[in-house]
Amino acid sequence: MQRLADHNLQDRALDQMSLDDWNAAVIPKVPGTWNLHECLKDMKLDFFVLFSSGSGIIGQAGQANYASANTFLDAFVQYRQSLGLPASVLDIGVVEDIGYVSENPQILESLRAAALWLLSERDILESLQIIIARSALPAPLSKPTRTEAYTNPGQVVLGLRTTMPLADPNNRTVWKRDPRMGAYRDSESLTMSQSSGTDESLKRLLAAVATDPGKLDTNECVDFLAKQIKDRILGFLMTPDGDIDLGATLNEVGIDSLVAIELRNWWGSNLGTEISVLELLNATIKQLAQLAVEKLKENIQGKPANGKTEHHPVDADAEDGKAKGEQYLPMKA
Length: 333
What we know:
Largest sheet: 3 strands, parallel
CATH superfamily of the largest domain: NAD(P)-binding Rossmann-like Domain
Radius of gyration: 23 Å
Strand content: 5-15%
Strand order of the largest sheet: 1-2-5
CATH topology of the largest domain: Rossmann fold
Structural class: mainly alpha
Low-confidence stretches: 1-14, 193-197, 303-333
Shape: globular
Number of strands: 5
């Protein structure tokens, strides 16, 4: 019995985290962030962006040090905001095509098998562009109550979703039983119930315009696409019976970056063309429908709809032809 007890104590000792392990994850993020804040707090900054992880939201078994350090970053954004200083944080999920996971195929496959949603480099870059713009937004005025949640547009969690229904026994996502994810279950069932009819209608339209491109020039086609886009946005917002001002941009009606990313993914999957998050947020639904028509024409004709190559003016002082920061429109929370 004594030998068994000693063995169990050894097992528990192996499970304990050493101080060195704790410091390895915490010191770069906690004292490191504080040092940057102290050095820059008297400077007028356009943005102060922190890179955190979804582990600070959902936790990770055996990685309390990493999860704690990232939770600190999330809280530190609120601290800087309380001082009237710019701050925002991006909580990143699993990225499959760059970084540690991409260099370790076995880990990548195990995460994919567990039904985790895998992000791409493009997801990170577009989200970074949004979170930079949100960094200068004032601190939220409302405080959490029993009936009203606290929302901070300066914090964006990226990749908190799954590739299969949570009820599927093969879904081994660590947060599937987290009570906070109850809204996700509602969103999941709503999106699945709405997707089939909308997507089938789009398939029929795409088949029709492939044989008769002239259909793209009709008002009926634009109106149809506008309705599909509107219905999809309402589905993502979990308000299928709601309404959206067709004359206001998505930015003006309060569509956030995560919904815009979902809409962009839906657009690419169903229309077969690409669109950026900024294009989505700075256009009305009617304009998006017209843009969809133009992009479909380009796909069919293999060139821009007007037959000419488009050139966009760039600031002469911009390095390597890249647009400067002030050329991007700010995001609305």
